[in-house]
Design a protein that fits this description.
The complex is a heterodimer. By secondary structure, chain A is α/β, with parallel strands linked by helices. Helix content of chain A is 31%, strand content 27%. Chain B has 2 domains: 62 residues, 5' to 3' exonuclease, C-terminal subdomain (DNA polymerase, domain 1), CATH 1.10.150.20; 188 residues, 3-Layer(aba) Sandwich (Rossmann fold). Chain B has a 5-stranded parallel sheet with strand order 3-7-6-4-5, with helices on both faces. Classes of the chains: A alpha/beta, B alpha/beta. Chains A and B meet through helix 7 of A and helix 8, helix 9, strand 5 and helix 10 of B. Chain A: GO terms for molecular function: ATP binding; ATP-dependent DNA damage sensor activity; four-way junction DNA binding.
Chain lengths: 321, 261
């Protein structure tokens, strides 16, 4: 009993400050490690491209058209986050908020064979899944998420990763294209990202949010002719596109990554098999190959880099060109 | 100028101070009947005191004014500027970001506002021997885009630049600064709500008077928390202009550069 009381007294100032927000003393930048903690994505080549992985304490956005591998990337991250820090992970569980499809349980299970941190537990047990159908519901469950994360901090693998797949699906369905609704929408962008950032700082979380893309109709660059980030214009499947949710949302994220896919048609002439009979024995093969690549659109700690990757049964892996 | 130096009799002075009229402005804002009642003196005597007080008050205000010429001289002589490390940018800015000014930097996401912020927080620390200010920096981060590793990279490059400068000019001054010292001299505040933001900005006055060598305050960004949490836009404007005023006062008082992003 005495023990508990003394710990409470010891915790009192910490609790006070956590209630009052940041104390009015500046942080010494040397107190923390000189690199922000990162969560590996489970592939050394992609990690190198991202300077170690997805950074903690901030929001990273993953932009891509459907079928480019956003969800694959997210699923793999929930598994690699469980790796111990010696392997670049956070030794942490993760919270997966999905808004689009039924949660791809089978794929997660398949991937979990590749990323098995140890044999004594099933990695799928450490991925908490919650479906979200509307913006209001997301706002409603935010306090619950916070207390859930707080409670998990004493467990074996505390939650240190939040994935929202995808934020665009929430916002693109609920709002009309009127001035009033758009104003309300951007108000909510800042509110949600403010909450996420506060949690990210408070618990040292990595936050990964996926976003859809829209086709770009005008010939000029980017949204309203504004160029956002390193790449003037994003191309995927041969079309110029730009991230959904506009410039207001772009202000809400700290880093933005872009996955592109392009179909290559490789024409391979078939060697004549039957020598000289009939004359038209050659036939052209058309091979379709998807080239996928990952670009850093903007990030406070990264230069303009990119790498190619492929998606296999085992997961998402980069390769050297 | 204070009440104790007013050219009036000692008893009157004593009465004024004991009645709570400790500053000239408090006397001048009162009416003669107020004074005669508070000091228990006749009305004519009160009018007399008021006349003397308002005269010397006007004098003291006039003494404080400057001509435009004086101001120009002062600006040219003492207005220090923080280099951005980019010659073209410095040219446009007239030598860098000016002290005693509030500078705003705007731009689309990913254009490099945060990079410029970190760069200034490092460059303000370039010692006087190398043409810098040798000051310290306050970095108020509301968005969470400040990355320590990036600050370290910039600090390393800055130290390298100074070594290069030494070699080039065959200068004898030693480069004592280490990249880690540069990081240590950035006072970093991470802000998660607009109430915290207002509180920190209110606190800055005290903080800067305790740390005189702070030469730049960087707020990255001023807008983020004000774009949510405020339903009443009129209130938002009032709070924001209050903040702007405080920052301007701060900049003038301590001759530091305030930079909002």
């Amino acid at each position: 009993m005495e023990q508990t009381i003394s710990t409470h007294i010891h915790l009192a100032p910490i609790l006070f400050w956590s209630l009052m927000g940041t104390p009015m003393t500046p942080q010494n930048l040397l107190d923390n490690p000189l690199t922000t903690e990162k969560c590996t994505v489970g592939c050394p080549i992609i990690d190198r491209c991202l300077g170690g992985g997805i950074p903690c304490n901030s929001i990273t956005e993953l932009v891509a058209e459907s079928g480019s591998g956003k969800t694959q990337f997210c699923l793999q991250l929930t598994l690699s986050a469980q790796l111990p820090s010696s392997h670049g992970g956070l030794s942490a569980s993760s919270l997966y908020l999905h808004t689009e499809f039924p949660f791809p349980m089978r794929r997660l299970h398949q991937l979990s064979h590749t990323f098995r941190p140890s044999n004594d537990h099933n990695p799928c047990d450490y991925v908490f899944v919650q479906s979200v159908h509307s913006v209001d519901q997301l706002l409603d469950i935010m306090p619950k998420i916070e207390s859930f994360i707080k409670n998990s901090s004493n467990s074996r693998l505390p939650i240190r990763l939040i994935v929202i797949d995808s934020i665009a699906a929430l916002f693109r369905s609920d709002f009309d294209n009127t001035m009033d609704d758009l104003k309300k929408r951007s108000f909510l962008f800042f509110k949600i990202s403010g909450m996420l950032k506060a949690m990210a700082v408070g618990f040292g979380l990595a936050v990964l949010v996926t976003n859809q893309v829209v086709d770009l109709m005008e010939p000029n660059e980017g949204v309203n002719g504004l160029r956002v980030g390193n790449l003037g214009c994003l191309y995927s499947s041969g079309r110029p596109i730009c991230p959904a949710l506009g410039i207001a949302w772009a202000n809400c994220v700290n880093s933005r990554l872009f996955l592109s896919r392009n179909e290559d048609f490789v024409v391979r002439e078939n060697q004549m098999v039957n020598g000289g009979v009939g004359g038209s024995g050659s036939e052209d093969f058309v091979c379709r190959r998807t080239r996928r690549s990952l670009h850093v659109v903007f990030a406070p700690h990264l230069a303009d880099t990119s790498c190619e990757f492929e998606i296999t049964r085992e997961g998402v892996f980069g390769f050297e060109r | 100028m204070e009440v104790s130096k007013l050219p009036i009799s000692a008893t009157q002075r004593g009465k004024l101070i004991s009645a709570g009229y400790t500053s000239l402005s408090s006397i001048c804002s009162a009416s003669s009947s107020d004074i005669s009642r508070d000091l228990k003196i006749s009305e004519t005597e009160a009018v007399e005191i008021l006349k003397v007080a308002s005269n010397s008050w006007c004098q003291s205000i006039l003494n404080c004014t400057q001509t435009a010429w004086d101001m120009l001289q002062e600006e040219q002589e003492s207005l220090a500027r923080i280099t951005t490390s980019c010659a073209d940018l410095d040219n446009i800015l007239g030598g860098g970001i000016g002290c005693r000014e509030v500078t705003e930097i705007g731009g689309v996401p990913g254009i490099g506002k945060t990079q410029l912020g970190i760069q200034l927080a490092v460059n303000v620390q370039i010692p006087v021997e190398f043409g810098g200010l040798g000051g310290k920096a306050i970095y108020i981060d509301t968005e969470g885009s400040f990355m320590v590793e990036r600050a370290l990279q910039i600090a390393e490059a800055c130290v390298e630049d100074m070594l290069e400068y030494n070699r080039f000019l065959r200068n004898d001054c030693q480069v004592k600064t280490q990249p880690k010292d540069i990081l240590e001299n950035i006072f970093y505040f991470r802000i998660c709500s607009y109430t915290e933001q207002s509180a920190v900005i209110n606190y800055l006055d005290k903080f800067v008077s305790e740390h005189k060598d702070v030469k730049v305050v960087i707020i990255d960004s001023i807008a983020f928390h004000f774009r949510h949490g405020f339903v009443d836009l009129a209130l938002r404007t009032r709070v924001l202009s209050g903040i702007a005023l405080k920052l301007m006062n701060l900049a003038k008082k301590f001759s530091l550069a305030v930079r909002t992003i």
